[in-house]
Amino acid sequence: MSLFKQKPKTEREKVEERREEVLAHGRKFKYPLQYAKHKLMINTIIVALIALVLMVVTGWAMLYKLQDTGDMIYRVTQVIPVPVAEVDGAKVRYSDYLMIYRSNLMTAEQQGGQLGNSEDDEAVRRNYKKAALYSAVEYTYAAKLGEERGITVSEIEVDKAFDEHRKVGGVERSEEGFLKILRDNFGMSKAEYRRMLYLTLMKAKVAQAVDETALAQADEVERLLKENDNDLRKTADSIEGVDYEETGRLVDNMNVDGGRSTVAMTLEAGQVSERFLSSNGDGYYYVKLVDKTNSEVNYGSLKIVFSEFDKMVANLYATDKVEAYIDLDGDEGDV
């Protein structure tokens, strides 16, 4: 028999005691569960890293070994700016190369039929790839020189060029109709065509800026025109590298001719225009009006071709300052 009578527990003490029992029971599972969560997180990260590595390796193989030119890989290169080559330290966008190649190939197939899998057809594709890569290198180098010289192409200039192309041939096309032509004939969206216009305009501006020879020839042309009573043919014959051309008949005033018809329509018979840049930016033009109607024009023209930029690009190849990351003909590193 106990000498001391145990005091009954209060309800609060009973609750506290029960609480401690529950917590003690829970502690048995706390640390194993934390370990399982930690292990699960590590495994998830490892799996994600493996998947990422596999995606990178697969993408690299499709781009640089298999040289896939399909829709999926093209869209990937538009999102991820991977390079296809390097020119004088500037990376050439894979997306630009594919844009040019796919557009040119589609145009060729529309005109000559779909290419098959024969050796001859593969050789044709390879030639289109080489041409596209060469163009992409030129555009990238022009953009590099443009940045160094502070030459820019604004959105307004691209808008203007887009509208001019939409009206080529004197036909007032709606934007929707023009985009359908781009899609059906060139496989291009509006954004892609605007990118192409930007690259073309930048190259044209740079080619003009670097060609001091063409500028000197223009000064000589203007001097000789005064001496030769505005005789374009005689003037052209006096200067090496200056070309003379004439329509010989009336042509549409919206003729696709580098802008000569449009300028000629502003002149009077026998009048010679001032020097102007060709619409594709490959040289200077002088135009002399022979005859015109309300919608047609007959003219002679003199052209000074820009050549300095082409020489600069050729020198880059000659001095190994162009490196291709894809092998188009079995000679790794050459375009």
What does this protein look like?
It is built from eleven helices and eight strands. It is an alpha+beta fold and 335 residues long. The relative contact order is 0.09. The longest helix has 55 residues, at 11-65. It has two domains: 67-210, Triger factor/SurA peptide-binding fold (Orthogonal Bundle); 212-305, no CATH class. Strands 3, 4, 5, 6 and 7 form a five-stranded antiparallel β-sheet that branches. The mean pLDDT is 86.
What is the element layout, followed by pairings?
Elements: H1 11-65, H2 71-79, E1 83-87, E2 90-93, H3 94-112, H4 119-149, H5 155-166, H6 175-186, H7 190-210, H8 212-227, H9 232-238, E3 242-246, E4 251-252, H10 260-264, E5 276-277, E6 283-292, E7 296-305, H11 308-318, E8 322-324
Antiparallel strand pairs: 1-2, 1-8, 3-7, 4-7, 5-6, 6-7
Helix pairs in contact: 2-3, 3-4, 4-7, 5-7
